[in-house]
Amino acid sequence: DGGITQSPKYLFRKEGQNVTLSCEQNLNHDAMYWYRQDPGQGLRLIYYSQIVNDFQKGDIAEGYSVSREKKESFPLTVTSAQKNPTAFYLCASSIDGSGLGNEQFFGPGTRLTVL
Amino acid sequence: KQEVTQIPAALSVPEGENLVLNCSFTDSAIYNLQWFRQDPGKGLTSLLLIQSSQREQTSGRLNASLDKSSGRSTLYIAASQPGDSATYLCAVSHSSYKLIFGSGTRLLVRP
Predict the structure, then answer these.
(1) What's A81's DSSP letter?
(2) Measured over all CA atoms, what is the biggest interatomic distance in chain A, rounded to whole angstroms?
(3) CB distance B51–A97 less than 8 Å?
(4) Looking at residue A46, what DSSP letter applies?
(5) Could you please report the per-residue DSSP string of chain B?
(6) Is residue A97 predicted with pLDDT exceeding 70?
(7) Residue A67 to residue A49: CA distance in whole angstroms
(8) What is the pLDDT of residue A2?
(9) Does B5 contact chain A (CB < 8 Å)?
(10) Mean predicted lDDT score pLDDT of chain A
(11) Is the Cβ of B96 closer than 8 Å to some Cβ of chain A?
(12) What are phi and psi of A90, to 5 degrees?
C-alpha cells in the first residue's frame, strides 16, 4: 500500500525533553511537510523540504528541527525550546514542491502531550 | 497576507439534505485550492483539488467551485449521509509549497 505513516500515534513529553516524531512515505514524493494543528484551528506550517538534504522554515519553526537525509523520511524533533508543544502534528507530502498545483497528501498524525 | 475563512464554523443538517460549505480567501493570486475532510483524531483526506484555471471539480456527491476574482469557493454535498459527518477544511496554495488553511466547518448529519 502506498501512503504516509507517522509514529507514534500518541506521545508524551516531560518538561525539558526533546522528542522526535517519525514520518515515512512510499509515494516517491520529493516534497514533504510538517504542520501543527491546535484545537478548533486550521493547520500551520512548521517546516518543509522540497528535496533530499534541503529544508526550509515555515511560519512557526521556532523550537522545532528537522532533517531530510532520505527521500522517504522527514523526522521532526520538538525541542525543549518549544514552550507550548501540546498539539496534533501532521506530516504531508506532494509529488514535488516546485511546480503548480501540487496536491498534498497527509499522514494519520501524532498527538503530542506535555506532562 | 493571505487569510482563509470558513463559514459556518459548525453545521447540523438532517440526512438527505443538500448542503453548501463556504470558503473565502483574501488574495486571489492562488495556484490551487484543496478541500479536505478530517475525522476526529485523524489525518486529512484530500477530497478535491481545483487548479486556478478551473471553475469546478466533481467527485461523486461532491462538487467544488472556485471563483478566484471574488475570492470564494464552495463545496456542495448532495444527498448528505451520516457518514459525511466530519470537519471540512479548505486550503489555498499561493506558492509552490505552502498551503494556507481555514479553521474548518464541523458538519453533523443527523439520521
Answers:
(1) T
(2) 42
(3) no
(4) E
(5) ---EEEE-SEEEEETT--EEEEEEES----SEEEEEEE-TTS-EEEEEEEETT-SEEEETTEEEEEETTTTEEEEEE-S--GGG-EEEEEEEESSSS-EEE---EEEEEE-
(6) no
(7) 9
(8) 66
(9) no
(10) 91
(11) yes
(12) -120, 135
Query: Among partner residues A42, A108, A111, which is closest to B101 by beta-carbon distance?
Result: A42
pLDDT digits (tens, 9 = 90+) for A15-59: 889 999 999 999 999 999 999 999 877 899 999 999 999 999 999
Any idea what DSSP says for residue A27? S
Give the residues across from B48 on adjacent strands.
B35
C-alpha span between B83 and B86 (Å, rounded): 8
The rounded distance, in Å, linking the Cα atoms of B77 and B89 is 14
Q: Which grid cell sits at A84?
A: 507550548
Cell numbers placing A94: 506532494
* Alpha-carbon gap, residue B58 to A48, rounded angstroms: 29
Chain-chain contact of A100 with B96 (C-beta, under 8 angstroms): yes
Neighbours of A103 (CB within 10 A): 15
CA gap B30, B96 in Å, rounded: 10
- pLDDT tens column, B23-78: 999 999 998 999 999 999 999 999 999 988 899 999 999 999 999 999 999 999 99
Residue A83, pLDDT score: 86
Tell me whether the omega of the peptide bond preceding residue A8 falls within 30 degrees of 0, making it cis. yes
CA dihedral B49, A29, A93, A9 (to 10 degrees): 130
**Mean pLDDT, range A1-9, rounded to an integer:** 88
> What's the confidence (pLDDT) of residue A81?
87
